[in-house]
Amino acid sequence: ADDELLPAIEGLQIRGEAFPGNQIEACGYSINGTAACNCAVIRHSLMFNSS
């Protein structure tokens, strides 16, 4: 339904430089049933997928 809330991360914070060989850290609070959060750097863009 349109009124269902999607999985999300509240207060998402990202630290580090998104360059090959560097490490990044992400933290936040799971909301709306979020069980996992995956992130990847793709061509200098940071992509997140939560479920």
Keywords:
two-stranded antiparallel ribbon; mainly beta; 0% helix; 51 residues
Report on the architecture of this protein.
The chain is mainly beta and 51 residues long. It has one domain (8-50). Helices cover 0% and strands 53% of the residues. The chain contains no helices and four strands. Strands 1-2 form a two-stranded antiparallel ribbon. A two-stranded antiparallel sheet has the order 3-4. The two termini are 17 Å apart. The mean pLDDT is 79.
Short description:
The protein is an all-beta fold and 51 residues long.
Residue ranges: pLDDT <50 for 5 or more in a row? none
Number of domains: 1
* C-alpha termini separation: 17 Å
Q: Summarize the biggest pleated sheet.
A: 2 strands, antiparallel
- Per the principal axes of the C-alpha atoms, what is the gross shape? elongated
What string gives the helices and strands in order? Answer: EEEE
Rounded average pLDDT: 79
Count of β-strands: 4
Q: Main sheet: which strands, in order across?
A: 1-2
Question: What's the topology here?
Answer:
Elements: E1 8-15, E2 25-31, E3 37-42, E4 45-50
Antiparallel strand pairs: 1-2, 3-4
